[in-house]
Every structure is written in structure tokens, then in C-alpha cells.
Amino acid sequence: MTETDRFLRACRREAVDVMPIWMMRQAGRYMPEYRALREKYTLLELCKTPELALKVTMQPLRLGVDAAILFADILLPLEPMGAPFEFAKGEGPVVHDPIRDRAGIERLRVIDPEDGLGYVLESIKLIRKELNGKVPLIGFAGAPFTLASYLIEGGKSAHFVKTKKLMYGEPEAWHLLMEKLAEVVRKYLRAQIVAGAQVVQLFDSWVGQLGPDDYQQYIFPHVSKILKDIETTGVPVIHFGTGTTTLLPLQKKAGGTVIGVDWRLPMDDARAMLGDDVALQGNLDPTILFAPVPVIEARAADILQRMRGVGYVFNLGHGILPETPVESVQRLVDFVHEFRHPG
Amino acid sequence: MTETDRFLRACRREAVDVMPIWMMRQAGRYMPEYRALREKYTLLELCKTPELALKVTMQPLRLGVDAAILFADILLPLEPMGAPFEFAKGEGPVVHDPIRDRAGIERLRVIDPEDGLGYVLESIKLIRKELNGKVPLIGFAGAPFTLASYLIEGGKSAHFVKTKKLMYGEPEAWHLLMEKLAEVVRKYLRAQIVAGAQVVQLFDSWVGQLGPDDYQQYIFPHVSKILKDIETTGVPVIHFGTGTTTLLPLQKKAGGTVIGVDWRLPMDDARAMLGDDVALQGNLDPTILFAPVPVIEARAADILQRMRGVGYVFNLGHGILPETPVESVQRLVDFVHEFRHPG
Lengths: 343, 343
Prior knowledge:
2 copies of one chain form a homodimer. By secondary structure, chain A is of the alpha/beta class. Helices cover 48% and strands 12% of the residues of chain A. The longest helix of chain A is centred in the middle third of the chain and has 25 residues. The two termini of chain A are 23 Å apart.
């Protein structure tokens, strides 16, 4: 078994030598070599320059993670769709002209990924070449609800008032927006796979703001359309969200080879809820990496003990945080690889 | 049955004529008369001047809600404990000197409520007198985790990194902090009851950031100590949080006559999870109040249909939002009162 196999095999619920681990935002501000690059380039410059995206994607591999994830941002498709944005210092993304009404939704372009996102596909090709089979490459996209929340709120949001106001108040306009976003995302993920992504993850990071009835009505048809199509490629798909305890059965139904679980639900409960016919990924609280090493090890061991058997990918429950000590990340990766189930 | 009975009877799982309704933050920025007062006084001035707190507390009663809730803020105890704060314009609370270490925790004073919070108790007496039995008065306090998060982060937080870093990394210091906060809160709620509060609510607004094992280890002993003591007074206690789907059984075990449920969990699922021996409160998504009236009515009807029978208090899943149309709030209150279960 090569290193490449471990992560892909876990996604497919096949036996593995040790548990695979990668981390969301594993290429990021917690790494000194990333911060050094960010002093010279903006986040968007790193995303839009394939040679730089390659460089950043490769940085965390020194930690021994079992997968590389394309360096990019879930918002990149918004710009060619007609909603440019920037990352304001300390404030996160700012969409210059947020969607206010149905007319704004109608103006959004359902782009082909080659038309405005070619640099992402170019990055994937470069990364695959550089990886040369060492570890698999994960591509990704934001899911329609999460993308819509940025488009409508104009940035991060605490209560998603404007998003939900449109969703509840103008369901036809909402579904038009979801359809457009879903179609862009579907084509974008397909193009990433054609370019060389060996696994793709759909980030529905904020969908946990909804209860299951809303998910069923406003989200499910669109996410399902994306995932059922991508599943036909044979490439494993990770379906990720946070705060999704009550949504997980519907998320599984919508699709995904692997379902992401955050830290609010113990992994054995997630397994009991979702059954054995799907792989799971998660669920270490990213803040655990700020704790002393014995605490990190105990928490990782606890998760691993709950996940005996096949079909599990070790990961955090959400992205790694900027101030995380890199030596703790290194220890976590090593610990997961060294772990053997007692008995 | 007087109006007073309806809310108290629902808390005690006794039969009611119609479902009682009140709303978290029902005295707040969505009301023009509240905004008019806030042009003249700061939030803290309103809290600290019993005549003004009385005035604000009474404002939403014109909507026909079945309970008044003391106008105050969960952070008020922090100031006499030795951690003064202010509400910065548009930024929420700012604790001037956040807790950094065990020494900071040791310096916190375990105050008696008369020692620095006398104005709250005075407000309660004034409000009870003014209410004159029309509707019951709810007192409240923040729960230890939620208060600790403001003390440690210095304000609102996205990831609670500093809070969890202390919790995971220095458990002894953490438990000392929790003990101090729990003792202040326990005495504060008891004093509110002596002053005239007929129901009290414990706001553990942010505890849904934790999974059940962390809740059990770091939170449960302290919340339980508060609630088990308050239960001996015979006054109903509402135990509230958000994002708590995986914590609800432990929260029920920790105590409370009524358990709060946010909008992520359908109320009938909450009832099935928690059993018939506890009252429930919630769970309309506060953003629903931004939807057209027929949507508000349909959502309210859906919740009411799921909650046939006794032991339910209609409420939002979290506080009412500042931009909420007041006429929609009025319609919701009327709709809940007019609702009759079919058949």
C-alpha cells in the first residue's frame, strides 16, 4: 500500500494500514512559510497564480498529511458569475455589490469553469504533476447555500437574516439562485476532476444554520443534483458542513462518498446515525490544537477508538485556525499515524 | 384562568386555554419606543436605572405577550465581580481587561447580588408592582460558560479559542472560574426570586459550541449546581441554549423546569428526545419574522401542531433581531393565541 492509497481507500471504505489524516485549511496562516508568502502576495494573488497556488498547496505536505488540497477559495466562482469580491484586511470576504433582489439573481452568469476559473484548473494540473503520486489531490467548491449567504449578505454573517429573508419570502427567486449556483458548482467540480482532482469536497460550511425541514425544501434538491452527478464520475466526494447534527441524514441522502461531522456530535453517534454504508470525516475541535500535547493525543485517541473499522478519514471538525501552533499539528499527524487500536 | 396563569401553567405542564408566548429580547431595538429611549440613554443606563428598566420591560406588553422579562443584560454581574465592560457602538460588549490566566480568575470577586447588583433587584420590585399580576415576570442570568466566554475573549467570539484553550489546557483554573461564576449566578437568581421574579431563565447562549463529552466534564457540574438549587425554590426555571441538539439530554439532567430548543431541531423530535416530564420552549427561527405574514403563520402553525398537549411555551429559538418588523411580531403573538388544534 502506498501513501496514496490510504486516503482514497478510506474514502471508499476499504481497509487501511493506519488512519489517513488531512486538515481543512492545512495550507494556511498557522504555517510560517505561508505567512512569508502572504507578506508578498494577497490571498487572491496566491489563488490566481498557478505557480503560487502550487507552492502553497505543497507546504503542509512536510507534516506528513495523507492528502493535498488545492489552494483556492470557495468564493472564486462568484467573480466570473458577476459578483466580484475582495478579502478586506481582518474582515474576511467583502462582495462589492451584494444581491438584493430577483433582478440581481437573473444577472448572475452561469459560467463554464474554463471561462474565468481556468487558473484553478491550471493549478490542479501543476499540482498533480508536482505531487507525482505521492498523495492524492482534493479539489473543492462551496455549496449553494454557503455561496448564496456571501452573495446576499455581502460577507460573513451572524444571523443570515438577508439570506433567509429571500429564502422564506421569495422562494422562486431563491430556487433560481440555488439552481444557478448548483449548476456552476457541478460544472466546476467536474472540470476539477477532469484537470486531475482525485477527490472533491463540497463545503456547505454554514448550512447548519437551517433545520431539517428547511434543508429538505430549500437546499436538498440543489445539493443532491450536484452530488449525484459527481458520484457518476467515480471520484469520491466529501460532503461537509458544520452544526449539521440534525441535517446529517438528509445530507447523506443528498449524496457523498464521505460525510463530514463537526465536533458537536461524537463520531460513534454519527456512525450509528448514518450507518456503515458511507465513510465519515472529522471531528476534532480545531481549538483542541491549542491545548497541551497530552490533551491533543487523548482527544485524537478517543476519536480513533470510536472509529474502529473502515471508512473513516481523520480531520478537524472545521478549518485549522490561524494561530494554531504548527508543532501541535505535526504531533497530531504523527499521533494518528502511530495509533494502533488496542487488542 | 387569568392571563397570569397561562405561562406559569405551561411551565408546570398544566393545561392551558391557549399556548402562551413571549420572546427573548422582546424589549428591544425592533420597537420604536425602545429606539426612542436608546437615543437618550445608553444600554447600561437603561439597565442601571430601575425606573427606565421598568419602562422598557413594560414596552412589549402592548403586543399581548404572556410574560414580561426583566430588562437587563447577562453581563451585568461581571462589573461588580471585577471585570467592567461597555457596549461599544456596533461591536457588542467589550470587557476592558479580559481574563488571561489563573491570577485573573483568582482576583474575581464572588459577590453577593446586593453588593453591586442592587439596581436589578430594585427594578424587579418596581416591575412586579407595576405589572400588578397582569403577566408573570421572568428574571434571568447568563450561565457560567457563556459568561466565561465574554470574560476570556473580551467580547463576542467566532471560535472561542481563548476560552477553550483555558478549558482544555488548564482544567483546574477553568473549574475555579466556573465555580465562581456559578456561585454568583446561583445567588443572583435566588435574589431575583426573592425580589419578585416568578420564573427565571438561565441563558447558556453559546454552550452549543461544545460537544456532549466536554459539556459533561467542564460545564455540567456547575450548571447543575445552580439549577438544582433554584429548583428547590419552587419557581420554574427555563434552561436555554442554542446549537444544543447533542447537549439537550445532558441539559435536562443538569436541571430546568423548561428546556429551550432552537430551530435546528424540530419540536416533536425534541419532545421525543427529552420525554414528557419536562416543559419545552422555542423554537421559531427569529429570521422567520422577516418573511411575509402567511409564511410566519404557517411556521407558527407547524410548531403548534407538533406540540399538541401540555408543557410548551411558544418562543423564538433565540433573541428577536433588531430589524424585525414590529407588525409581524404582533401578528405572531395574535396567531399563537388564536390557534386551535384541528379536531
